[in-house]
Amino acid sequence: MAENPIEDMQVSLPGDGTEDSDTDIADSSSNEADAEAKKTGHFSWHIPSLEKLRQEVREKKVYGPEFEVHGTWWRFLVFPNGNDSPDQFSVFLDVARKSELRPGWHRHAQFAITLVNQKDPTQSLCRDATHIFYERESDWGFVSFTSQAKLNSATEGFLTDGGLILNVDVTVVRDYVTPTTWGTRMLWRGHDSYKETGFVGLKNQGATCYLNSLLQYLFHLGIFRKAVYQMPTEKEKVGKSIPLALQRLFYRLQFEQTAVPTKELTQSFGWTTFDSFTQHDVQELNRVLMDELETKMKGTSVEGTIERLFRGSVSNYISCINVPVQSLREEHYYDISLNVKGCGDIYRSFDQYTEEEMLDGQNQYRAEGYGLQDAKKGVRFKNLPPVLCLQLKRFEYSVKVDANVKLNDEYAFYPVIELSKYVVEPEKDTSYCYHLHAVLVHSGDVHGGHYYAFLRTGAKSQWHKFDDDYVTKATEKEAIDDNFGGVEELPLHLDAGRKFSNMRTKCSNAYMLVYVRESDSRSMFEPVPQQAISQHLIKRFEEERQAEEKRRKELDEAHLYMNVRLVTSEDMLQHDQEKTDLVALEKVRELRLRKNATLSQLREKLSKELNIPGERMRFRHWITRRNQTFRPADPYPPAKEQVPISELRPGSALTLWLEVSEAPDGEPLFPLTEGHACIFFKVYDPFVNKMRYLGHVCWPVTTKVASLIPVVRRMLGYDESVELEIYEEIKPEMVDKVDVSQTLENAELGNGDVLVLQRALSDEDKASVLNPNAQRYYAWLRDRVQVRMRDFDAPDKDAFGLDLTKSMLYPQVAQAVAARLSWDPECLQFTSYSEANRGPYLKPVSRAARLTLQEMLQHYLPTSSNILYYKKLDMPLAELENMVTLKIQWQNAAAQPVGAPHVLVVKKSCTIADVLLELSSRVEMTGTGRIRLMEVFRHKILSVPDLAAAVTLLTHNQYATLVAEEIAREELDVAPETGKVLPVAHTNRNTSMVSLFGNPFMMLVRSNDTVATLRPRLQAKLGVPAEEFATWRLAMVTYGRMDFLMEGDLIWEELNLHGQQFLVLEHLNDQPLSQHLQHPSWRRTEHGIKFRRTEDDSDSTEDA
After folding, report:
1. 1049: closest CA among 1020, 1003, 1009?
2. How many CA atoms lie within 13 A of 1075 on its CB side?
3. Contact (CB, 8 A) for 46 and 12
4. Is 450 a catalytic residue?
5. Which regions of the chain are under pLDDT 50?
6. What burial letters (b/e) apply to 998-1031, b meaning 16+ CB within 10 Å?
7. 8 Å CB contact between 974 and 1006
8. Considering just the CA atoms, what is the radius of gyration of the chain in Å?
């Protein structure tokens, strides 16, 4: 019988065995000293066989042994095969024995889970979190604690003999709070951030904790907040203006007493929900935001504020040792990136930052007039800003694991630092003593984590922790010392005779530091009273607050009201009947009425408002019919008019038609309802291809349809000789002719039915109009499409619009477009829209394919576009389609492009030789006069077509570029057995990726060529300086694999017989990865932070 992996799991739990009683924490009767001693606990769980655990547990999750901390039983919850993510290993902390806890229980706990690295404990993987556990959220942890690949890797060291060790440290916080449930969110009445600290937090939209940390630090710089308030935003639109959104956010942080949302601010950035759930880099966001604000402040009273507060300058110098040459270059900065690795503390980082570098040997400096010289290179600070932002480089690329890693190395920083030694010429009256204002912390690892901030809100004030919407007081130790990072060693634990050194990496550590110059502290933290805020802001925000209160009141009272849509005959007259049906319900008047209101009360209100006697009004309700049309039905009888409107249509919206009688005085205002049908009329005019609403009648259902014709003639003003055709609108896009000899009842005409009338046409008139009858007109409406025509040579804007039908063929479309352009339809060419290109598709639409307009618009797209490109031709399209248009880029002997590409139009029957003959008359050649044509794709030569090949061969790869060059004389003089011409491409030396770039070319390689003999010819061809070319390496690429060649390698020996090879010149790329690529959250997407707004944002104004 197989071992039970769960029973074999061994537990190591330190402690003396004394526990609190199993009651709610708030009810604990033990003294404070005992409670303080027992509220923190450590537990270690050894799983001897992870593989057995995966195979033998029946459910996808497994609970670990229970352990007690501070009167509460806890346990691990592990998903060995991932929780809905099979490539991840999921670990949670769970409250055990929940059934024994009293109703309404909760536990507020901070915990850290460690996956012990049994090979190197310092590389253990740690994740920590804070959570309030309660009945509906009794477990909390990490879906992606680590990847299965990393856990199973033999080189990582997490598994020994197939077993692993999980440690957890739990601290239970006694907060004496009372939980209430609102949806799935817990509201904790016990902790009031504003009441306890005087400050409020910011709500997290999903992954915006990094943004919240940055905004809190900026808000608490009083001088910066004051400048933001003074930015002119009177004409800015809500949701479009970053300054206005930041003003409102700061205002609410200053004067409200609950956590403030940031959604308006991120909307002003142009961010979507996806952006709000993507964790970005704090430093990058700070730079982008400062750039944006600095731009917006130009030309205002606060222009230059960003520069005065945050901008410093450095002097980059190179000083020759043996000759009198010195190069100086001044650069400005808004933040400084300091190395963490190998430094240990902030002063050693500054030492390394300003350390001199010797330029000697092969790295000598080229001094103008003196050639290569030994020199010293370095950087010195010219001045330091009042607010000094220091970004600690906690993330770097590791060659060892070929991925980004987080550096949790111990790194000390101090409450006060003195930096005068790093300034090139310190000024006597300037202080270089800085006090720590903010510590922005990243908790987690390279795959994700959480940001929060510790701030001093004044020059010498109390430290506070700002963790999204939760603000608490903090000690200096919690703000500074606890965020140095490094490794801490917990007590040694024994497990089945084995010793495990429980080394835990501190994964919560400082990521960004903000220091304020001592001499400027008073002005930096100067309070911002309400009087310092622009009055237009106060007025605007107060009006918005009142509007928000009104909106909330309406929401609170929403259950007392219902919305009623009121349709009038005027609405039907104004309705665009090309959209068919009777009315656009979204455009009619909507009333908000109390649910206990009655129709008689509504009639009285409307009578006064419209100045129509109440007895001339009655209401009909609308119903959805079996054919999915929505039409008026029977009128409400008098008894129903006294019933509350909520009972007329319970559970659904109420739509009413206000029917107004136009009967002369003395006659019945409304005919009898019984035996009558309310019929609506539309009129179609085929001569203008338009339809309009005419009116309605109530008519006996036992009379014939023909009896309606005299009534309609009078409504239209026609005499009796005018013959009419009558159709019924079966549904919005379909009509059918009505037999007028039938009664309304037999023709199934009833309340709400629509009859479409038109004058009968002669055969001559029918031939002269687009749609001679209503049936054709409705089919045309159904098939019609508004096509946005664009000139192929100006593809970014619409030239004009055309109403066409989807069933039109190419010649018919050409005829319609040609009529608009006054051009020959035979000389028009059309191209479909490409979603991938955001413009014209690479190939035009073929006339020979006989496509419909629908097929032309949907060309290679999953759904139709309404954009079509046209091109005016100098020859008939039929003739052009027998031609091939080629764009050929000419390049010189150094593989550099010369001029713009040459456009050649040749017959399809031509060969490559014919093309090159035509090209030779357009280019300048100084050598052999022989041309080679190459197909290039992604900076690699795909092929060199044979001269006898058909020109149509070149159109097979529509994404390839055609490049031509003059063949070198040495290639013509060499025999095939003594030399071969090989493609050569360029690539970058980069630790993270290999990619081709630049212009490829062909190069003769002789049979006796080694790398050493080929390199000088390559350098001479490309014209690259010797010093630079010396850093390039030569490699051979075979079927995608790149192998570097040594100086003595004979290149022909590396060739195979299949020709799937080319040479690569690998350039030295000493440029570091951009900041956003260094950060783990951006390593995956490789997109930086952007503020995206619409084109009209720059001159946006407030709507009246």
Report:
1. 1009
2. 18
3. yes
4. yes
5. 1-38, 175-189, 492-500, 991-993, 1070-1087, 1094-1104
6. ebbbbbbbbeebbbeebbeebbebbebeeeebee
7. yes
8. 40
What is the bridge-based pairing of β-strands 690-700 and 734-737?
unpaired
Report the distance separating Cα 608 and Cα 603, nearest Å. 9
User: How confident is the model at residue 962, as a pLDDT?
Assistant: 93
Catalytic position from the list 126, 209, 678, 827: 209
CB–CB of 168/93 below 8 Å? yes
Please pick, among 450, 493, 575, 676, the residue that the annotation labels catalytic.
Answer: 450
Please give the structure tokens belonging to residue 724.
Answer: 């009419």
Residue 1057's pLDDT is what? 52
**What whole-number distance in Å separates Cα of residue 599 and Cα of residue 656?**
10
Bridge partners (DSSP) of residue 907 are 883
- 1087 is an active site residue: no
**Token pair of 588 as six digits:** 């009619």
The CA distances from residue 651 to 621, 636, 646, 1000, 1070, in Å, are: 15, 18, 8, 71, 69
What is the spatial distance between Cα 681 and Cα 712, in angstroms, rounded to a whole number? 8
Let me know: does 335 contact 286? Beta carbons within 8 Å: yes
- Give how far the C-alpha of residue 482 lies from the chain's centroid of Cα atoms, to the nearest Å: 35
**Using an 8 Å Cβ cutoff, are 636 and 621 in contact?**
yes
Residue where the block lists tokens 């030779």: 920
CB atoms within 10 A of CB 193: 20
Confirm if 676 and 688 have CB atoms less than 8 A apart.
Answer: no
Q: Kindly compute the dihedral angle of the four CA atoms of residues 1096, 1098, 1103, 1104, in this order, to the nearest 10 degrees.
A: -140
CA 102 vs CA 134, 137, 384, 708: distances in Å: 11, 16, 59, 78
Q: Percentage helix, strand, coil, to 5, in the chain?
A: 25, 35, 40
Reported in sequence order, the residue ranges of 412-571 that DSSP labels E, i.e. its strands, are 416-418, 433-445, 448-456, 463-467, 470-474, 487-489, 493-495, 498-500, 503-505, 508-517, 561-567
**Closest by alpha carbon to 218, among 512, 545, 639?**
512
Nearest CA-CA partner of 35 in 133, 172, 168: 172
Which amino acid is it at 439?
A: V
What was the pLDDT predicted at 773?
A: 92
Cβ-Cβ contacts under 8 Å for 855 (sequence gap 6 or more)? none
* Nearest residue to 1022 (alpha-carbon basis) of 904, 833, 892: 892
Instruction: Find where tokens 């049309």 sit.
Output: 629
How many beta carbons lie within 10 A of that of residue 118, not counting itself? 19
> For the whole prediction, is pTM greater than 0.85?
no
Q: CA–CA separation, 1020 vs 1001, rounded Å?
A: 14
Buried b (16+ CB within 10 A) or exposed e, 674-703: eebbbbbbbbbebeebebbbbbbbbbebee
Beta bridge partners of 173: 108
Sheet holding 617-624, edge to edge: 589-594, 561-567, 654-660, 617-624, 630-635
Which residue type does 588 have? V
pLDDT at 1048: 85
> pLDDT, tens digit, for every residue of 615-662?
999 999 998 888 888 899 989 988 999 999 988 877 667 999 999 988
CA–centroid distance for 779 within its chain: 41
- The single-letter code of the amino acid at 380 is R
Angstrom CA distances, 510 to 199, 322, 411, 484, 506, stand at 22, 44, 9, 6, 11
